[in-house]
């Protein structure tokens, strides 16, 4: 479970929040930055898993279900089933449904723990330049956080060299933490692979650049806008170091004219990000 390096009390004190100010919907706290970091890490883990399983179908239409690659996010404790069943030839235009079942607990190759199921659906179109993938959650938890809702991918191939995919992710998801607090996130992230696409058999050398914006409704009903103001960088090689995949970039939070940022660093595979508000900066731990 990811924890703030600073205790909640100290974090709240350092951003000059009193008990009364905590009830002020305009306040942006270090604790909330930690919540956002957890949601972002879960989002990228799910995106990696869904993208890998969709691409596996194109690379091996009969049996594209490999989970034992230590260079990928997905670990071998996941049970994957498919309609049409594995071993059945898939022809263009076929609707494909893959269920990724993590059971009651499965540790991903980057150390995060998941349970429940992710169900992805797409139409097999090997010659298309644009693919849409829908995925839903069935009692799915990421590091004990329950996710309910759905997302869609639109994966489009660029028309200029080097040709590579750009994925637009639309999300409408509610995340409920073990303490009962729920956060509703609606928005869009655009994820572009900027390295590693020319080595499809090697997942670990993939690097992604992510842009986008979204709104989050907090348990106190306050609404916050988050915008990626410096593109986020996701490095799959951090899987080998058992570290979060988000390693660089800045997200800016705005609520009622109050602004704060979360800086993921310089590209190093580590557990840390820097939260800044009112000119004061604090390090938080976003690791497992």
Molecular structure report:
There is one protein chain. With 288 residues, the protein is mainly β. The protein has one domain (8-285). Helix content is 14%, strand content 46%. It contains three helices and 14 strands. The protein has helices at 8-14, 19-22, 30-59; strands at 79-83, 95-101, 106-107, 113-123, 130-142, 145-157, 165-176, 182-195, 207-217, 223-235, 246-255, 258-266, 272-277, 280-285. Strands 1, 2, 3, 4, 5, 6, 7, 8, 9, 10, 11, 12, 13 and 14 form a 14-stranded antiparallel beta sheet that branches. Strand 3 (106-107) and strand 4 (113-123) form a beta hairpin. The longest helix has 30 residues, at 30-59. The protein is globular. Mean pLDDT is 84; it is low at 1-23.
Radius of gyration over all CA atoms, rounded: 19 Å
Ranges with pLDDT <50 over ≥5 residues? 1-23
Number of strands: 14
Shape estimate = globular
Approximately what portion of the residues adopt beta-strand conformation?
A: over 45%
What's the structural domain tally?
Answer: 1
Number of alpha- plus pi-helical segments: 3
**If you average the pLDDT, what whole number results?**
84
Helix content: 10-25%
The biggest sheet, with number of strands, parallel, antiparallel or mixed sense and barrel status, is: 14 strands, antiparallel
How far apart the termini lie comes to 5 Å
Instruction: Report the order of strands and helices.
Output: HHHEEEEEEEEEEEEEE
Please state the structural category: mainly beta
């Amino acid at each position: 479970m990811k924890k703030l390096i600073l205790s909640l009390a100290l974090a709240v004190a350092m951003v000059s929040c009193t008990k009364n100010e905590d009830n002020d919907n305009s306040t942006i706290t270090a604790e909330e930055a930690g919540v956002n970091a957890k949601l972002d890490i879960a989002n990228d883990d799910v995106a990696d898993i869904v993208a890998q399983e969709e691409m596996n179908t194109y690379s091996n239409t009969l049996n594209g279900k490999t989970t034992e690659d230590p260079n990928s996010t997905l670990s071998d404790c996941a049970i994957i089933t498919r309609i049409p069943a594995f071993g059945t030839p898939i022809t263009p235009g076929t609707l494909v449904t893959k269920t990724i079942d993590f059971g009651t607990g499965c540790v991903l190759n980057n150390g995060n723990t998941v349970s429940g199921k992710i169900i992805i659906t797409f139409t097999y179109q090997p010659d298309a330049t644009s693919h849409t993938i829908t995925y839903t959650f069935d009692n799915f938890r990421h590091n004990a956080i329950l996710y309910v809702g759905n997302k869609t991918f639109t994966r489009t191939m660029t028309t200029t060299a080097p040709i590579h995919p750009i994925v637009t992710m639309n999300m409408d998801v509610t995340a409920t933490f073990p303490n009962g607090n729920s956060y509703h996130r609606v928005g869009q992230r655009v994820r572009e692979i900027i390295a590693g696409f020319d080595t499809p058999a090697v997942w670990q050398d993939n690097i992604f650049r992510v842009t986008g914006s979204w709104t989050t409704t907090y348990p106190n009903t306050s609404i916050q806008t988050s915008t990626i103001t410096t593109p986020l960088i996701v490095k799959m090689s951090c899987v080998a170091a058992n570290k979060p995949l988000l390693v660089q970039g800045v997200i800016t939070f705005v609520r009622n004219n109050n602004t704060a940022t979360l800086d993921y660093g310089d590209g190093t595979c580590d557990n840390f990000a820097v939260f800044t508000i009112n000119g004061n900066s604090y390090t938080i731990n976003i690791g497992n």
